[in-house]
Amino acid sequence: MVEAVRGDLTTQRLDVVVNAADPSLLGGGGVDGALHAAAGPGLLQECRRLRRTTHPDGLTAGEAVATGASNLPCRWVVHTVGPNRHRGQSDPALLAACLTNSLAVARGLGARTVGVPAVSAGAFGWDPTEVAGVLTTTAAADVRAHPGLDLVRFVLTSERLLSLFQDALERARR
């Protein structure tokens, strides 16, 4: 099932929440800053461990990697870096890869429920309507093609985003 709700990603009681991460993996603004603030210092410690070991240069757009959730009510955080339109990253396939890779990492963890923000619709300059279309279409196709997830929930911070994602979900289901 794929759904869209208005809410706060930091309070979702799901197996995984997806972080629209800064490429450094060391915290940033928006969703990333909110998740790090709510999780407490344990999340940053795990991200620093990733930088020391498997991801010394951080993440590039479209990649995804998991950490524990520290003080968040979920079990894991899957970090992905959305494409930054201000830096010329305007390929919808790169945005879709953020979600496809995040869902693959979540399935690999054994997760059944995943919360996702509007990746790249904020400071990274993507039009929210386009983000809604790309992400909902990608989620619907991924859930059909790869069983194992019971719920992919887009958790959106405004009524406008919620409306855009709900409309896009309706189109994706046709």
From TrEMBL:
InterPro entries reported for this sequence: Macro_dom, Macro_dom-like
Taxonomic lineage from the root: Bacteria, Bacillati, Actinomycetota, Actinomycetes, Micrococcales
Pfam assignment, any one: Macro
This protein's name: Macro domain-containing protein
Domain Macro: 1-173
